[in-house]
Amino acid sequence: MFVFVLFFYYLEICQGLQRPLVIGHRGVAYLPELTLASQSMAHAYGADIIEIDVCLSRDDQLIIIHDTYLDGVTNVKDVFPNRNRTNGRNYVIDFTLEELRILTVRERVNPSTNVQVYPLRFPSKSIVPFRLSTLNETIELLLGLNHATGRQRQLLIEIKQPEYHVLYNKSISKIVIETLNAYNLTRSTDPIIIQTFNIEELMHIRYNLHSQLRLFALMTVYQAGVSVSDYDFYRSEEGIRNLSNTVQALAPDHVLVVDYDINGEIMGTSNLTKWAHQYNLNVYPYTFRKDLFPGSSFEKLVEYFWHIAQVDGFITDHPDVILQLLQNDTTVNTTFSTTLTTTFNTTSSTTLTTTFNTTLTTTSSTTFSTTSSTTLSTTINTFNTTLNRSSANFLHLFLLIITFLFTSIKRSELYF
Amino acid sequence: MFCYMLNIHLILIFIVNICQGIERPLVIGHRGSAYLPELTLESQSIAHAYQADMVEIDVCLTRDNQLIVIHDLYLNAVSNVKDIYPNRSRSDGYHYVIDFDLNELRNLTIHERIIPFTNTQVYPARFPSSSSIPFHLATLNETIELLLGLSHSTNQQYQLLIEIKNPEYHSQYNTSISSILISTLQAYNLTESHHPIVIQTFHIEDLLYIRENLNSRLRLIALLTWNHLNESSSNFDFYRSEEGLQKLKTFVQAIAPNMELLVNFAADGSIINVTNLTVLAHKYNLAVYPWTFRHDTYKGNFEQLINFFHRTVQVDGFITSQPDIVIELLEKKI
């Protein structure tokens, strides 16, 4: 019986270690997006993957920037007052790398109004001179940090608008692959993943450029005449089956994964995750931004996506927050399941088993703040927030040993 | 019977909660952290992400009286100055910060520390010094704005420990680096003891000057080391004595001694015994923050080292290049 209980214990621990992946969107929310400092923070917080965007400069250099224009995140208007196009914006592809290096990068503002887009983040008026970086520098940062810290993180490179770059006779994907080749980053086991919204470009990368790197298919809400690929098709069962020959995962807008009502409440999950898993594709929805969800609603959202929608990871501006949520919840799940299995074999506990069953399911799917009337749940709540996993495991082992001792004694008493 | 089991479980959880709630010693990220080129804005950001309570930085003056964040008085260990300004070295072959204006220094790129004039990385396990990433020198203003901006965006207050490098050397150039520092901080309204700025230096008399002549209310820390190293003209033998500590108490809040002043080490890195410096410092209500705990170069068992300083020497904090490792070790013990 002891062996039986121990087996369950180890099973639960192993399940607890497989938490969803956490992908730091543009690095982290706390510093200007995509800067080396922001990527460094994501690495330090423990994000499994750091997501970045690449666009091309006039001289074919890969620049780490989200927009194809510079006005959202740089001081280009002050440094180059006459280089904008007729729409008033300055485009990355109109500048050489040397020119782009002169610019300073700041927290994102609305280019028309100069108002900071996310007011709670790093002050966009700050004089700290962040700079644009190149893909080479970003790769060296990742490899250097992995080496120095001993922790292996990965890079998720989003190729921005290949169809736009084609208009300038540039194959951005080819330049990305060539850059990665120069660093010997070519295999599915290397810490590099590529993603783009242009599904046909993913086919091109896989079958024409013969890349073996992992690929993710970004998906958004399909708009006829606007969207570059037919996402309505690609998120159907047939489309997903089609994609599964080429890519390793889907990265959908979160509105494609669950159904929201008019008030923003979740009504249910779509079939996307189910079908993706059916065809062995992972699902990593975007973008989980804590500063857009007041109070505890962010925690509720993450728990829903984790336990009900069952996604494989989160693309988030706040990797530290989601990691904390995932690690706390894992601890509690392990506690509850272990307690459940230890009660299985003591004859006096049949009624208690059923009670624990209900408690287990309710607490794992809703937030912990809804404490039930028993003191047990309240204590577990505090336990949840302060105890780390290794201490929890130590406690479980101790509990198991004590349970075994006591149940052994009880069983031997029955013989007299 | 099951309820009995549950009670034990609950009691254990309760005890663990209590123990975890006790405050751990401060962890101060030395020059930011070990994982990126020292003192860069990126290295400071990463220390903050690792939850260091304080980030320690060093400041020197440029020719045009700007405060630059750099550890050495010269540029050759961490920058490409030799390539950019080949004719600006002194007769000893080194390029000195004080011989350059800020806008000239902005042209340099920074890399992980090497032994000057060689290609040998000082700490081989750290970020590759041959990397082409163009890190840059930061000014104190930028460092302060990074601190304030990050505190705002993360909603967490970390602090800056500013070491004034060699005030007496700077006096030779007719500048008071301490005065310039205090003025810069004042411009950001950083003046009080509860503000997230602490100042330290090896020249104890400069600390007295900051406190009594410049009338600063900021917290001050006295760096202590061996006299024969000539870090400053201060008599550290005196300041380590009971009388010296009593005097220090009148104008500083803490001492930051070389850790070898607190314990006696054997050749293999193991600890022989404790000196009485910590006990004396605590007697006069001075906190004690030894330096520098480097996980990648310590010869003995690093966990035992941290444990010893925590439990036996009872220091109030650790100045370390690996704040994440020290925090994990300190929080591990139940």
Automatic annotation (TrEMBL), chain A:
Q: Reaction(s) catalyzed by this protein?
A: a sn-glycero-3-phosphodiester + H2O = an alcohol + sn-glycerol 3-phosphate + H(+)
Kindly give the InterPro entries that the UniProt entry links to this protein: GP_PDE_dom, PLC-like_Pdiesterase_TIM-brl
* Signal peptide stretch: 1-16
Ranges annotated as spanning the membrane = 391-409
Q: Which UniProt keywords apply?
A: Glycerol metabolism, Hydrolase, Membrane, Signal, Transmembrane, Transmembrane helix
Q: From which organism does this entry originate? A: Adineta steineri
Entry-linked PANTHER family: GLYCEROPHOSPHODIESTER PHOSPHODIESTERASE GDPD5-RELATED, GLYCEROPHOSPHORYL DIESTER PHOSPHODIESTERASE
Q: Which Gene3D superfamilies match?
A: Phosphatidylinositol (PI) phosphodiesterase
Q: Which GO terms describe its biological process?
A: glycerol metabolic process; lipid metabolic process
Q: In this record, what's one Pfam family?
A: GDPD
| EC number(s) recorded for this UniProt protein | 3.1.4.46
Top-level EC class as recorded in UniProt: hydrolase
The entry assigns this protein to a family as follows: Belongs to the glycerophosphoryl diester phosphodiesterase family.
What protein does this entry describe? glycerophosphodiester phosphodiesterase
Molecular function (Gene Ontology), one example = glycerophosphodiester phosphodiesterase activity
What sequence ranges are listed for the domain GP-PDE? 20-326
From TrEMBL, chain B:
Query: What keywords were assigned to this record?
Result: Glycerol metabolism, Hydrolase, Signal
Q: Which reaction does it catalyse?
A: a sn-glycero-3-phosphodiester + H2O = an alcohol + sn-glycerol 3-phosphate + H(+)
Cell membrane among keywords: no
Where's the GP-PDE domain?
Answer: 25-330
Which biological process terms from the Gene Ontology are attached to this UniProt entry? glycerol metabolic process; lipid metabolic process
Residues annotated as transmembrane: none
EC numbers: 3.1.4.46
- In the UniProt record, the signal sequence range is 1-21
Pfam families hit by this protein: GDPD
Q: Does the keyword Hydrolase apply?
A: yes
Instruction: Tell me one GO molecular function of this protein.
Output: glycerophosphodiester phosphodiesterase activity
Instruction: Tell me the PANTHER family matching this sequence.
Output: GLYCEROPHOSPHODIESTER PHOSPHODIESTERASE GDPD5-RELATED (PTHR43620:SF7), GLYCEROPHOSPHORYL DIESTER PHOSPHODIESTERASE (PTHR43620)
| Family of the protein in this entry | Belongs to the glycerophosphoryl diester phosphodiesterase family.
Record-given protein name: glycerophosphodiester phosphodiesterase
Q: Which organism is it from?
A: Adineta steineri
